[in-house]
Amino acid sequence: MSENTEPQLAVVILAAGQGTRMKSTLPKVLHRIGGRPLLGHVLATARGLQPENLLVVVRHERDMVVGAVLEDAPDVIVVDQDEVPGTGRAVEMAIARVPDFTGDVLVLSGDVPLLDDETLAGLIRTHRRSGAAATLLSAVVGDASGYGRVIRDAGGGVQRIVEQKDATDEEAAVSEINAGVYVFQAAALRAHISLVGTANAQGERYLTDVVALMRDSRLSVGVSQATDAAAALGVNDRVQLSEAARLLNARTVRRWQLEGATILDPATTWIDVTANLALDVTVLPNTHILRATTVAEGATVGPDTSLVDCEVGPRATVTRADATLAVIGAGATVGPFAYLRPGTYLGERGKIGTFVETKNSTIGERSKVPHLSYIGDTTIGTGVNLGAGAITANYDDIAKHRTEIGDEVHSGSHNVFVAPVRIGAGAKTGAGAVIRKDVPAGALALSVAPQRNVEGWVETNRPGTAAADAAAGARSAQKADDGAQEEDG
Fold first, then answer.
1. What is the residue range of 434's domain?
2. Known catalytic residues?
3. Tens of pLDDT along 111-121?
4. Which residues pair with 307 in a beta bridge?
5. How does pLDDT run across 371-392, given as a tens digit for each residue?
């Protein structure tokens, strides 16, 4: 894409503001949509343009923002804004960090997350073909509240940009907004940025004032109108945050549908931009596929399922489940109503069934934990079947311990395995067993206490209750039946 590299491109991302309308202790640019902070989306788009220099201007909660920036893009130049407020001052300080740069400077806002490479490439292309000193990105929207307005002259050229707080009633009625995205010729920007004053309602040095200054110098200022107005919308409060999240998700879902995934109900399906779906995946309603989750070919996920940083293997089925940092093997089944905590590994054709919770455990190929169980800090071999109500008691009030269950073990219902304990291959356990000692391979482990029945206990200790009345009635009926049998005999 030669237009984007000749002349060279520098990108400045503005991320110094507090974002008071968010009413949050978290900086606005770090609020998340689609699996990334707002700023993370802008960084990803900027890096796609392959700029010579990428600069991020920070100030509010500086260390928190810088940490997020360097995690995503360690090669970024961090610029600290001083006490002078305003976007104009932010850009002035940024270009001072690259004094020898002579190409085009693209300025982005850290709170405009929906811009894509195509929109920005079109802006840069328009700028370079026109030879303008500056070109801004605009959009026509139904409700322009909160955004700067693009004021045009009689010939349709850009005259100036007016912020909401400084707009007259006539200017506020304009529906073309400034997206806060600009391309400047570096030399023209340097010549005019220092002239920006603070004669406005906020007392700030607005970058938008550079447009009017360039017009006064008889320099050309162009505009590129975004074909998708949503791409140009910024996030200033939590209402706009949720709307941006919805728009981004709709875009993401549509992309995966076009790539060959069946998504039955896009309105209730949420997929982060960092997730990945293979061919012929089926996603059922009310499903969240989040962060770095990958779903392999032919798998079915949902309904009512949440996957965070999970790997789902080919042809696996995950139904009404909640899983985080879990690996689900090929052809395996999970759910309904299963809870997979971090460190769960379910082998090929394995099963984690209804009302089962797992944590830090490996469940081998073809092994099944069908229902009503807790499996924590456990290694289970292949071909194992655990009966209903199995519990691996991994915590002794001081430390966690592991349970090891060998291949082809079949346990009875309602077993408790008190870790650390090892069950040998092919062993069996009886119903209700509490396993406190290792079980040798092929052995049957029983935990048996004689059953003792105390006759008449209810009638003696709970007289007058419904249970006592029922017991007395049953006892009388039994005596009558026994007497009849004696007469017949």
1. 238-445
2. 371
3. 999 998 889 99
4. 289, 323
5. 999 999 999 999 999 999 999 9
DSSP 331: T
Residues 355 and 369 in one domain: yes
Task: Enter the tokens of residue 135.
Answer: 């070109």
What CATH code is carried by the domain that includes residue 141? Answer: 3.90.550.10
Residue 463 lies in a domain: no
